[in-house]
């Protein structure tokens, strides 16, 4: 009797790497990764970002060199953020024909045509107050900001962007962007909507990287409350109804349950943004020798995939691409 106990032995399928890989449920591949890049108009040399070791602000002149390295690693797409020389109340440089991102896109399309270019569409890097829309009486105006965001998206696409990613969290932006693009003959350009974007402390290092910290107040009047998940599904429905082609959850690691719910709730491709603070925490611990960076990063990204994300935007993309090769 005791000889046959237990019948069920889950360790049978864990005996060696060959058998483990045969029954593995989740895979992380380089073609699921998107790499964010910061382009600084004024810079002559790449500028280090103190809170994000290994990440740079790139001068326009060097952006294609870095993009070539990314493409050669097999990473299919980059997500662009611009740091303009001049900021004003209405973020004029965000939709200027020769703005930093518009120029970067033209260079990238000429030199690294196979790399997909996704652009972040949001005013906060371009406004002198650092908020994601225009301000009157101390509040970000929803409807007034929409037209500027649509102009920004159009200027990116006219310069050659492949996909636009609105991250401002104004109501109605996906519909307004879709309409603007369609009206100008760009009905084939997908919208990757930051549908479920929380007001998160994990964006801290990004605000140093992009110089986009709000000069007063915070973003809680437009980004979501970290406590809410039913509301996330309402945001999702709204963006789908307005014509989003892909939906995003951001940040990723504290919101794996939200990624799972979004995955179960819709059939669109789901993107997760492994944000700056999530990157910096791992880097800091690794630099102290407290964790095994490669192992931790692979485990974290696998957990984001397991939660239901099809794609991951991550500052670790070049490292992961190299690790997956070896
Ligand atoms: C722009 C934007 C932000 C991030 C992506 N797009 C900052 C914010 O909303 O405050 C954060 C990305 C990161 O932390 O890596 N609105």
Automatic annotation (TrEMBL):
Which Pfam families does its entry note? ALAD
Q: Which SMART domains match?
A: ALAD
Q: Does the keyword Repeat apply?
A: no
- EC main class here is lyase
Supply the EC number(s).
4.2.1.24
Cite the annotated pathway: Porphyrin-containing compound metabolism; protoporphyrin-IX biosynthesis; coproporphyrinogen-III from 5-aminolevulinate: step 1/4
Q: Which residues form a coiled coil?
A: none
Q: Which keywords has UniProt assigned to this entry?
A: Heme biosynthesis, Lyase, Porphyrin biosynthesis
Question: Which superkingdom does the taxonomy of this entry point to?
Answer: Bacteria
Instruction: Please verify whether the record's keywords include Magnesium.
Output: no
Q: Which reaction does it catalyse?
A: 2 5-aminolevulinate = porphobilinogen + 2 H2O + H(+)
Q: How does it assemble?
A: Homooctamer.
- Identify the PANTHER family for this entry: DELTA-AMINOLEVULINIC ACID DEHYDRATASE (PTHR11458:SF0)
What this chain does, per the entry, is described as: Catalyzes an early step in the biosynthesis of tetrapyrroles. Binds two molecules of 5-aminolevulinate per subunit, each at a distinct site, and catalyzes their condensation to form porphobilinogen.
Recorded family membership: Belongs to the ALAD family.
Question: What is the protein's given name?
Answer: Delta-aminolevulinic acid dehydratase
What organism does this protein naturally occur in? Dictyobacter halimunensis
Lineage summary: Bacteria, Bacillati, Chloroflexota, Ktedonobacteria, Ktedonobacterales
């Amino acid at each position: 009797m005791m000889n046959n106990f237990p019948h069920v032995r889950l360790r049978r399928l864990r005996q060696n790497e060959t058998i483990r890989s045969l029954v593995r449920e989740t895979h992380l591949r380089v073609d699921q990764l998107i790499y964010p890049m910061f382009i600084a108009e004024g810079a002559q040399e790449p500028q280090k970002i103190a809170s994000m070791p290994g990440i740079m602000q790139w001068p326009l002149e060097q952006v294609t060199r870095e993009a070539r390295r990314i493409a050669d690693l097999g990473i299919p797409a980059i997500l662009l953020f611009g740091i303009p020389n001049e900021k004003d109340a209405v973020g004029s440089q965000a939709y200027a024909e020769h703005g930093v991102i518009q120029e970067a896109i033209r260079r990238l399309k000429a030199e690294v045509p196979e790399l997909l270019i996704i652009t972040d569409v949001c005013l906060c890097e371009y406004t002198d107050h650092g908020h994601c829309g225009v301000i009157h009486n101390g509040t970000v105006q929803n409807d007034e900001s929409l037209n500027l965001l649509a102009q920004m998206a159009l200027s990116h696409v006219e310069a050659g962007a492949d996909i636009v990613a609105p991250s401002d969290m104004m109501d109605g932006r996906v519909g307004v962007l879709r309409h603007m693009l369609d009206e100008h003959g760009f009905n084939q350009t997908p919208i990757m909507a930051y549908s479920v974007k929380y007001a998160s402390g994990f964006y801290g290092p990004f605000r140093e990287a992009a110089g986009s910290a709000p000069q007063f107040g915070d973003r809680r009047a437009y980004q979501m409350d970290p406590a809410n998940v039913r509301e996330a599904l309402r945001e999702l429905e709204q963006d789908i109804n307005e014509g989003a082609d892909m939906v995003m959850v951001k940040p990723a690691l504290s919101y794996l349950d939200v990624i799972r719910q979004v995955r179960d709730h819709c059939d669109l491709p789901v993107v997760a943004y492994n944000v700056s603070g999530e990157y910096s925490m791992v880097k800091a611990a690794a630099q102290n020798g407290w964790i095994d960076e490669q192992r931790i990063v692979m485990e974290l990204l696998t957990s984001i995939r397991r939660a239901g994300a099809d794609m991951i935007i991550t500052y670790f993309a070049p490292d992961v691409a190299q690790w997956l090769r070896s």
